[in-house]
Every structure is written in structure tokens, then in C-alpha cells.
Design a protein that fits this description.
Number of helices: 13
Shape: globular
Helix content: 40-55%
Radius of gyration: 20 Å
Distance between the termini: 43 Å
Mean pLDDT: 92
Order of helices and strands: HEHEHEHEHHHHHHHEHEHE
Strand order of the largest sheet: 3-2-1-4-5-7-6
Number of strands: 7
Low-confidence stretches: none
């Protein structure tokens, strides 16, 4: 399934982009948002695109080749300040962070993000980093695994799944997505077990989905990066500039919500979105991955 940018029209409208703006797309993905941003800012504008995934940068370089106003960098958005310094840019007009993952990542068996595809238990956004999901699964204590599953996945069977993993890895390491799914399904009550070849079509129907989500968040330190990056990014947004954050998990949205709220209370920001913008029903039907998306936007005032 090709990747579709989430909340595209709402994002463009709320960022209030103009011709000639300097805009940062901190999570390029497949350049869905970036393509439309470029059309809005025109030839006199500039798009700076970041993504820590080398394969994403490669795809986007091809897609954005016709647009000389776009410069791409393989980098986590937490290091936006360093990129801007290298380009001799002090302030930008807008920054967009879409902190989900792309269809290309989830559908690539070698990346290990999905239980639907047999492959190595990897889950790294940046394949240059050393820690993989298999390292967490095989090395962390039962208590630490349960904490990850509960904190990052809201998984109510966190302790049961962590116990099953620790028991299984005593016999042999858990190396693949299939290995992990087998262990987790073995810990489920009989009423939730699936016959071979009869797993649900959609991820949200599978009771181990939250464990895979939690491991991905932990491997990539997604919440930590977002929390540390937002203040650094805000410093590089010019007066009347806007920051938009699209999240897909309650903890991510909470980080963005509290960050914007604190800025508003200090009169440093105007909340363009008093409440998060969510996809329309038609978008959710057309793009199932959009169902948990939330967009928050703030404008710099002081």
C-alpha cells in the first residue's frame, strides 16, 4: 500500500504557508507533505527535509529532484539546529513533524516493524544505530519489558507477555518477528488464539499489535527525541512562524500538548489549534493508518 500523507489539507491550511517561506519537514517519510509544501512556497521558497531513515532520503531525493528549492538531510529532527547552522539559516517560517512511520517501513520485511511480515526483529528507523528490537527482547529484564509494553503500548497483558518472553528466550533467542509473535500468541487465552494462516487482516485486531508498537517506540527513543527536540526547534522558528506536530500515540500527543500549553501560558505562543485536529471519517476510511492521527499547531508570538 503506497504511503498517504495524513491530514494533508488541514496541515497546509493551519501552517499558513506563503510564497517564499523557509519550511522544515522534519520527518520526510515519502515526501507526501513535502511535495505540497513546495507547491505552496514556490520557487522563491525553501524546503529543508530531514529523515533519519536512509531509504526515505533516497526515495525523496528522486521524488523531489525537479525542485531545486529542496535540500534533504539524513538526520533526526532533534538535530535540526545543527542542520540550520550548517546552512547559515537562523530562523525558519514553519516546521512540520509527522512522527508516525511510513508504509514503506512497515511493509518492508527486512525492517522488522510488522508482525504481518516474517523478518529479523529489527525496528530501527536509522539502521546505523546498534540497538535493535531483538536486543531489548533478549536482554532486558522481565520487569523492564513489562514497563515498556505498558508505558509505550498501553498493553494490559504487559506482565504476562514479558513473562512469556523471558521463559521462551531461556530455550533459544527470539530473533525474528515470527519468533516473537509465536511467543506472544502462546501467552494469549484460548479465545484469542489464531489458527495458522487465519490472523486478522488489520493490525488493530491483533492482540500483539501494542507490543510491536511499544518495542518500536523504545528502540528509536521516539518519545525522548520528541520531548528533547521541541524546545530546540521552537528556538529556530521566527516571529509569527508556526510549528505543527502530527502524532499517532497518546504519549506523543501529550508531549506536544503540554509543550504548546506551557508556551501559551508564558505568552510565547498562540494556540492555532485549541484542540487537536483529527482526520475526517472519509480520510480514515480511505487511509486506515490515519485513524489515530492528531495535529496540533502553534504560532510564535514572543
Amino acid at each position: 500500500m503506497p504511503h498517504k500523507p495524513v491530514l494533508l489539507q488541514e496541515t497546509l491550511r493551519l501552517l499558513a504557508l506563503r510564497s517564499g517561506d523557509i519550511v522544515v519537514d522534519g520527518t520526510l517519510g515519502n515526501a507526501g507533505h513535502a511535495m505540497e509544501i513546495i507547491k505552496t512556497i514556490g520557487l522563491t521558497g525553501r524546503l529543508i527535509g530531514l529523515d533519519q531513515d536512509a531509504s526515505s532520503i533516497s526515495r525523496c531525493q528522486e521524488r523531489l529532484k525537479p525542485y531545486p528549492q529542496a535540500t534533504l538531510h539524513q538526520e533526526n529532527f532533534i538535530n535540526l539546529d545543527k542542520i540550520l547552522d550548517s546552512l547559515n539559516i537562523r530562523f525558519v517560517n514553519a516546521v512540520l513533524l509527522d512522527v508516525g512511520f511510513s508504509a514503506e517501513q512497515i511493509d518492508d520485511p527486512e525492517r522488522g516493524f510488522s508482525f504481518n511480515h516474517p523478518g529479523p526483529l529489527d525496528m530501527r528507523m536509522n539502521v546505523q544505530q546498534s540497538m535493535k528490537a531483538r536486543d531489548l527482547v533478549n536482554d532486558l529484564s522481565e520487569e523492564d519489558l513489562a514497563e515498556i509494553f505498558y508505558r509505550f503500548g498501553d498493553e494490559r497483558r504487559a506482565r504476562k507477555f514479558a513473562y512469556a518472553i523471558c521463559q521462551s528466550r531461556r530455550q533459544k533467542p527470539i530473533e525474528t518477528t515470527e519468533d516473537l509473535v509465536g511467543v506472544l500468541e502462546g501467552a494469549l487465552p484460548r479465545s484469542l488464539k489464531f489458527e495458522k494462516g487465519r490472523r486478522p487482516k488489520h493490525a488493530r485486531h491483533h492482540p500483539v499489535t501494542r507490543v510491536f508498537q511499544a518495542l518500536r517506540i523504545a528502540v528509536n527513543d521516539e518519545l525522548g527525541c520528541l520531548e528533547k527536540a521541541l524546545p530546540k526547534i521552537w528556538e529556530r522558528i521566527g516571529q509569527k512562524g508556526r510549528l505543527g506536530v502530527i502524532t499517532f500515540h497518546s504519549s506523543e500527543d501529550r508531549i506536544a500538548k503540554y509543550f504548546f500549553r506551557d508556551l501559551s501560558q508564558k505568552r510565547q505562543a498562540f494556540l492555532v489549534t485549541k484542540k487537536p485536529v483529527v482526520p475526517s471519517r472519509s480520510e480514515m476510511l480511505e487511509n486506515r493508518r490515519a485513524r489515530s492521527a492528531k495535529l496540533r499547531v502553534a504560532e510564535k508570538t514572543g
